Amino acid sequence: MSIQLETERLILRPTAVADFDGWAELMADSSSRFVGGPVSREASWRGFMAMAGAWAIQGYGMFSMIEKASGKWIGRTGPWYPEGWPGTEVGWGVLPSAAGKGFAHEAAVASMDWAFDTLGWTDIIHSIDPDNAPSIALAERLGSTYRGPGKLPAPYEHFTVGLWGQTREHGGRAAAEPFASETIAKKALAPLFSSIKLSDSKTTPNTGGYPMKRLFAAAVLAASLSACASTYRATPYVAGPQPITRVAILDDSLPEGISAIEVASIASNFGLIGALINAGVEDSREDAIEAALATVSFDAEADIERMLVEAFSANGVQAHVATNGRRAERKFLVNYPTADGQVQAYLDVVAAHYGYTSAGHGQPWRPTADVMVRLVSVPGNRTLMENRIAYNVMNAPRGVITIAPDPEFIFNNREEMRADPQKLANGLRSAFREVASTAANLMR
After folding, report:
1. Per-residue pLDDT averaged across 386-408, rounded?
2. Which of 34, 101, 312, 356 could make a disulfide contact with 365, Cβ separation 3.0–4.6 Å?
3. Confidence grade of residue 241 (pLDDT, cut at 50, 70, 90)
């Protein structure tokens, strides 16, 4: 069978005889208890042949995951829908030696896209044992939500499973039901913040001299997880009788520091010690990125403001940057400057963060930016348009405008970032340019 998918690190293809040794190894390991194991090599053969038969008769089945670097079979991921199954499933299973490296996520994303686009599926489920925390976390990262308990057909009727899923319409998006990780984050971080006494200094004895900004970053992360649980409500622009042709862009739109977040690593270490360790690692990454960008005279604030002016000008709207002073918080302004008579509206732009993000350990780093925009009438300060633009933001809420990252700007590790600061800066500029263009097009 000629079907083959390719991701950054994997080749996904139908089952082949050469895959059986790896399959048997997986099914003999204790980790296979959630997928019907552990079983003998002979029993593995029957399951292996069933998967090959699915490919031969149905035209689809779980893909064999072949690691490009080694050429080895490291697991299986893909569509699965035998008789009596509770739904059209995309499942996964990887060898213990390949676990924790993001392979399952990488393969599942490609498999789900293929199931939606090629098989025409409109719904995908994952049947997961309630004790299988890693698979539940992966289902959440894929954008699936918990639907309730499920029942599998014989001979698996004794298995206890919960059903997670998503529709094609909302594929990859977070639903309104809270993530399990949101509750975990709140419970784990509560004792951390209850022990902190705020002060004007950069450190406090309650944190062992730990920089306060990192502890606040942990709070922001918990809040962002909570935000992922809800649907964002935008205010679309509706053109009035008098077209807007003159706009002032309010400055101080970006936070002072860059971000470098490894999403899966943070979400899996929400204990007090884990939070502090992760924060320290982030600090180190951010310092390295900022040091590299300093060598190429990168000015994020100036870049995004210039690109906003250019994007609006390309749409026939005269735009300039207006000074409004430093913002106390990364929020829209409460009071807007006195109108100078030369503009019809203010564009209030606030970035929650910008920088680089990775889906987890061993996953590549790509540019990210999470930006809110609000168009306010002059005079009157009436909101004419408000939206949120998420460039490569993990688990952005439904209703947010999402933009996929440019594949040209990928770094495998921090060393690659340090080695090519110009590419590092251009990656962020690419993100800013897309955000600016999107913001300008919201007025069309």
Report:
1. 84
2. 356
3. confident
In the block, residue with structure tokens 């099914």:
27
- Contact (Cβ atoms closer than 8 angstroms) between residue 317 and residue 244: yes
Residue pLDDT, tens place only, 213-233: 444 444 444 444 444 445 667
Token pair in block for residue 71: 């050429």
Above 80 in pLDDT, residue 83? yes
Contact 277, 268 (CB under 8 A): no
Mean pLDDT, residues 342-349 taken together = 89
Taking only Cα atoms into account, the Rg of the chain, rounded to an integer number of angstroms, comes to 24
Instruction: Please compute the mean of the pLDDT values over residues 146-160 and round it to a whole number.
Output: 90
User: What's the token pair of residue 290?
Assistant: 């900022």
In the beta sheet, which residues pair with residue 354? 369
When the pLDDT of each residue in the chain is averaged and rounded to a whole number, the result is: 80
For residues 65 and 108, give the distance between their C-alpha atoms in angstroms, rounded to a whole number.
Answer: 10
Are 427 and 406 in contact, with CB atoms under 8 Å apart? yes
Confidence (pTM) = 0.51
Among 261, 254, 258, smallest CA distance to 291 is for 258
The pLDDT of residue 14 is above 50 = yes
The answer to whether the CB of 356 falls within 8 A of the CB of 368 is yes
In terms of Cα–Cα distance, which of 48, 135, 56, 28 is closest to 90?
Answer: 135
b/e sequence 194-206, b meaning 16+ C-beta within 10 Å: eeeeeeeeeebeb
Judge if the upstream peptide bond of residue 38 is cis by omega within 30 degrees of 0.
yes
**Cis omega (within 30 of 0) for bond into 379:** yes
Separation of alpha carbons 351 and 360, rounded Å:
23
d(C-alpha 196, C-alpha 216), whole Å: 10
pLDDT for res 278: 47
